[in-house]
Design goal:
alpha+beta; elongated; 5-stranded antiparallel beta sheet; 7 helices; about 160 residues
Length: about 160
């Protein structure tokens, strides 16, 4: 398994897609029920394969990811060959960026000396999706990139 098995809730949400997945392998509902009962290891392997396919489909579409911690925000933009990062670091320990109050403080105090903005870039590895998945497992969220684009205009206004 390349990623991780979808949760029961996720599988329930994707039950129609899973049915099509089984149908693509010419497995009927009756056969699936029999596999679950008689060959639980095979059933587990099918769930793992389906989960990897779902994750792969989701990760292929990712362009932006955000990760918040109490004093940092990491905004990632996955381009074709590189990952661009905009980092926001607070030197003020009293502000927690994971709270509404802390985030509002940042919005109102972007030019405060306690706010440090920086950028970085690195090449995408051979397995782009695994890199993205690792960030998601660490708590990052897939986004549309609004926050990244907002801060990019602040850092590089001509872009």
């Amino acid at each position: 398994m390349k990623y991780e098995r979808l949760t029961r809730e996720q599988l329930e949400e994707l039950h129609e897609e899973f049915a099509r997945f089984l149908a693509s392998q010419q497995i009927t509902k009756e056969e699936w029920d029999k596999i679950k009962t008689d060959q639980p290891k095979v059933a587990e392997e099918e769930l793992d394969l389906f989960s990897d396919l779902v994750w792969e489909g989701v990760l292929n579409k990712v362009e932006y990811i955000e990760h918040f911690s109490p004093q940092h925000i990491f905004l990632f933009h996955f381009q074709e060959e590189v990952i661009d990062l905009i980092g926001i670091k607070l030197d003020n320990q009293a502000v927690d960026l994971q709270t509404t109050e802390g985030y509002n403080w940042l919005r109102n105090n972007l030019m405060n000396e306690d706010v440090n903005l920086y950028t970085s870039q690195k090449p995408i590895t051979e397995d782009r999706n695994k890199d993205i998945f690792a960030l998601v497992k660490q708590g990052a969220r897939i986004t549309k990139g609004d926050l990244y684009q907002y801060f990019q205009k602040i850092i590089q206004p001509t872009k």
